[in-house]
Structure formats: structure tokens, C-alpha cells
Amino acid sequence: MQASIEKRVADGERLTSDESRFLFTEADPFWLGKLAHRVRLARSGRRTYFVRNRHITPTNICVHRCAFCSFSADSVDERAFFFSLDEILSTVTADATNGIDEFHIVGGMPPPQIADYGYFRGLLAALHAQFPRVHLAAFTAVEIDWFAQLTGWSYRKVLADLKDAGLGSLTGGGAEIFDWEVRRRLCPKKVRAEGWLAVHREAHALGIPTNATMLYGHLERPEHKVSHLLALYDLQAETGGFRAFIPLAYHPQGNRLGRQLGRSFRTTALQDLRHLAASRIILHNFPHVKAYWVEFGLKLAQVMLSWGADDIEGTVGEEHIYHDAGAGSPQGVAVDELAYLIEQAGFVPVLRDGAYNELLLPGAVTAGGKKD
Ligand code: SF4
């Protein structure tokens, strides 16, 4: 099995379901890491990407209330928050003038009496007008589906309208696990797999790059992960519009599913490394795989750079979704610290923008990892 997988990856061929399943079940972890690293080296060499970004979370009020989500709230909850456009702009202005290359905007979907489509479009338009140089990585496919419900428009019309307002790329959230038997227990109100994939297909057709994710470590079995990743592989083979894949581990603290499962512990480091490496191998047609340090912590994220990841997210500034589920990582990290962490792992730190264009940071880090 190992030889056939290695040959298929070297030849740029799609893995079979059995081969993909083997990666999640029987494959020796060190062989897995080594092969994932080979795929990473073939894609990016020793370059490791990061971005000076600021996460913006307009609200945690959400009509979907997914069972695994520790972040969302009903509008009457004490912990519910909703920021006006003015509040968001005044909060991010100081950061943006200090050097930000990307705003990353995702959050809850409040009922229309709290925020209609115009609010979200207005947020992009206002940020784009005030910070035209900053890339706007905004919204998941679930949010695009919600906007289509609010407006009665097609996915294409919503995406084209948001692109006019300044949308640079679509984030990869909301994919969770595509299989309906699992999905209906995780997030029955959310757009199904076909809709999630259709949103990304439309975005790619409009020249909007997107990311993709998979949430693991809850109710899913290996075959669910395999069908999820192969569906992403197939869409990428069709459109070539995905930039990065981001594996996400389920955190059981503070949510309904965790209470149902009676479990408070998370996935282990070795499980996280296996999921990262298996994803990198199956999705060998994706340019990048990200070690999301906010979720895994900086130390494990650093190790992940040798297990298939060639991107370590960014400076972040403020994060709600994983911190509400008990993540112990810091809220933000300095550019110098990220570059140091990458160099110490034996890689070359490369500052990027939201579309993976390589940038130079004057006076700080060059593409060679040296101070100017
Ligand atoms: Fe809403 Fe997203 Fe949380 Fe689901 S996961 S409740 S869609 S914020």
C-alpha cells in the first residue's frame, strides 16, 4: 500500500478511497510525516508563509447554533455581542495603520432584524474604501448561503456583488464533515455539502480564490474524512481555485456536543499530526496546507511545518472561535516571533498577502529570513 501511494503522489494522481483510508488508520506515523513533508517540499520548498492579519468578528449571534460550536449565542444571551460598522472601523484602524496586509472576517449569522445583507456588504465596502491595500479574506460558504437566503439572489450574484465591494478571497470554514449522517448531528441547519461545494465552484468561476477546511475529532469515522477530502480534491482538479487547506480539530469544551459526548479532552498531538499529514498527501493538488497555530498552539504548529504544513497563519490580533472553546494560545503574535519560530524549525519565513503574493517587510524579515 505504501509503495502505491508514494507512486500515485509522485505521478500527481488521485488516491483511491482505500489508500486514503489507510493514511488515517494503519499507516506508520513516521512514514506518513515523511511523505507529507515530501509533498510540502515539492510544493513550496523550505518556504513557510505567514501574514500580518487582523481577525474581525462582527458578531457571535447566530441562527444556526451548531452542536459543536462554543462561540455562537442567541441574541438574548448575556455573552451575545454585535458591533456596528463604526465600532469595527475604529477598533481596527490603529492596527491597520501599523501594518496589516489582510483582514480575516468571519462570525455568526444573526437574524435579519439584527443585521441584513447590507450590513455585511457595507462592512466590506467601508474597509475597502478606508484600507484599499489590505486584502479582505471574508466569509465562509455558509455565510454566502445565508446571504443568498436573505436576498433571494443566486450564489453567483451574491459573490459578484461582494467582489465589487472589495472581497478578495473566501475563507474555508463551514465545511465541517460533508457526510450528511454526521453533518445532520453537527449542524443540521447549515448548508449541506453540495451547497458548500457549489459556493466555492462559483467563487472560483468569478476568479475569487478560496480555502477549505475539515473539522475532525468528534463523531466522524475514517471513511467520512476520506470522502470529504476526495470531494475537495475533485473540485480542485476541476477549478484550481483553492489556495489552502486547513485541518481543524474539534474542541469539546463549552458546547452541546461535548456535553453529549461526556468528553472534555481534545485530540492528541499525534492525532493532529496524522490528520495534517494525511490531508497534505491526499490533497497534493492544493498549493498550501496551514498549521493554524491559534488552535494547536505555537509549539505544535512549529512541529507541523515538518509534517506537511507550509503556512502558519498570521499575527491574528484577536480571535473568538477557538478561544471560546478553551484554546490556550495567545490572542496574537508578533511578526518577529513568527519568523523566529519558522527559522528555528529550519524553514524560510515568507511574508505573504491574503492571495499568497510574497511581500517584503522593510526593516524586519526578508524572504531569506535575515534582518535587513
Ligand atoms: Fe453559527 Fe458557525 Fe457557530 Fe455554526 S459554527 S453556530 S454557523 S458561528
Key attributes of the depicted protein:
single chain; 372 residues; alpha/beta; TIM Barrel; 43% helix; binds iron/sulfur cluster
In short:
By secondary structure, this protein is of the alpha/beta class. The protein has helices at 2-10, 17-24, 29-44, 85-97, 117-130, 141-151, 155-165, 180-186, 193-205, 222-239, 256-261, 269-282, 293-296, 298-304, 335-344; strands spanning 47-51, 53-56, 102-105, 135-138, 210-216, 242-249, 288-289, 311-314, 348-352, 358-359.
- Count of the domains: 1
| Major beta sheet summary | 4 strands, mixed
Average predicted confidence as pLDDT: 92
The level-1 CATH class: Alpha Beta
Instruction: Please give the CATH architecture.
Output: Alpha-Beta Barrel
User: Radius of gyration, Cα only, in angstroms?
Assistant: 20 Å
User: If strands are numbered along the chain, what order do they take across the biggest sheet?
Assistant: 8-1-9-10
CATH superfamily: Aldolase class I
Helicity level: 40-55%
What are the secondary-structure elements, in order, as H or E? HHHEEHEHEHHHHEHEHHEHHEHEE
Strand proportion: 5-15%
Tally of helical runs: 15
Q: Using the alpha-carbon principal axes, give the shape.
A: globular
Cα distance spanning the termini:
48 Å
Do you know the CATH topology?
TIM Barrel
